[in-house]
Specification:
By secondary structure, this protein is mostly helical. The protein is built from 15 helices and no strands. Helix 4 packs parallel to helix 9, helix 9 crosses helix 15 and helix 13 packs antiparallel against helix 14. The chain is globular.
Length: about 350
């Protein structure tokens, strides 16, 4: 991580990236500060390991953000940045954490809409795509063994849990290396998140596991939750528990679990290398399999998530290009009219 967050070439004044401290310090003081800087990452990692051992893996957005901000501050200290580095970290990330926390709270309130959740359209569409039986039922009855997880079950858990931190890690790297792209991706992320929230209010939708509990489908298992519980990670499994003020069991359409990987695909595809494009395609497909196999989403929920991601990424890109064109046109000097100039 230190390598990813190492000092970059001097950016424009408006970029907001960290810059090394250039003011000279007395020899003894500089030597002492250099030794103290080396402790930044060890102290951070010790604190993180203590937290994981005491409270379990952090999965809620606010806790993940706190540790992410801590990592950025540790990087600022280790790289020799002054107080300006701390201020830039707090300036760019504390408002983001506040917005995401507010969304999480609103998402919980969104579970109490005056209209009943929908399940029939998604179920009928999945049965049509599965030639009479949903793909979730086919996969679970063919692949899952309750009480005896396979290697692909653990792989599915890893893919599913990446939803809680992957986008924030990518944002952190962009924040340090390409601040302009950080703002661009952050705009896409927030727009996609709140577009999903608006849909949850207007169209509350049951996931397959809840539809099965209500007797509309054959019995299904929440694979990720089941595997986590069997693996001795009850703290991780608790992210699936009901009753939390942040919980919304009827927020299945669109699937933001599938939308965020697709957003990364559409965002990075134009400039990505060949090997990165392979990863960009593999991640949304792996997440889609995990969600359908694990009974977390219907196939149409996944397709809707992909469609939302495409609309947001390309819509934001179009708006940015339109704004850039207007600014360039406004800044360009007026060209003299040479129609009547002598030859």
């Amino acid at each position: 991580m230190t390598k990813l967050l190492r000092p970059a070439p001097p950016p424009p004044a408006s970029a907001g990236r960290l810059r090394p401290v250039t003011r000279p310090l007395p020899g003894a003081r500089a030597s002492a500060l250099a030794r103290l800087r080396l402790l930044a990452w060890p102290l951070y990692l010790v604190a993180l390991l203590w937290y994981v051992r005491t409270y379990g893996l952090p999965y809620s957005n606010d806790v993940v953000f706190c540790w992410l901000i801590g990592a950025l501050l540790a990087a600022a200290v280790h790289s020799g940045h002054g107080p300006r580095g701390f201020l830039l970290v707090l300036r760019d990330w504390v408002p983001v954490m506040a917005v995401v926390w507010a969304y999480s709270l609103l998402r919980g309130y969104g579970a109490h809409t005056p209209w009943a959740p929908h399940w029939r359209p998604q179920l009928r569409a999945d049965e049509l795509l599965g030639f009479g039986e949903t793909l979730t039922v086919r996969l679970q009855y063919g692949l899952y063994t309750p009480g005896s997880p396979h290697w692909y079950d653990y792989a599915a858990v890893t893919v599913y849990m990446s939803h809680f931190f992957m986008i924030f890690v990518v944002l952190a790297v962009l924040w340090r290396r390409r601040h302009d792209r950080f703002r661009h991706l952050l705009t896409c992320y927030l727009a996609l998140t709140f577009a999903g929230f608006a849909t949850y209010i207007l169209f509350p939708a049951d996931p397959p596991w809840l539809t099965a509990q209500e007797g509309h489908m054959p019995a299904l298992t929440r694979v990720v939750s089941d595997v986590l519980t069997q693996s001795g990670l009850p703290r991780a499994g608790s992210v699936f528990e009901n009753g939390s003020r942040f919980a919304n069991d009827v927020a299945a359409m669109p699937s933001l679990h599938s939308a965020y990987p697709a957003m990364l695909l559409f965002f990075f595809w134009p400039t990505a290398s060949r090997w990165l494009r392979v990863l960009l395609v593999a991640y949304p497909l792996a997440m889609a399999f995990t969600l359908v196999y694990g009974a977390e989403h219907f196939i149409v929920d996944v397709f809707a998530g992909w469609a939302y991601a495409a609309a947001v990424v390309y819509g934001v890109r179009w708006l940015r290009e339109r704004r850039r064109t207007r600014l360039l046109a406004a800044a360009a000097p007026a060209q003299p009219d040479r129609a009547g100039a002598p030859g």
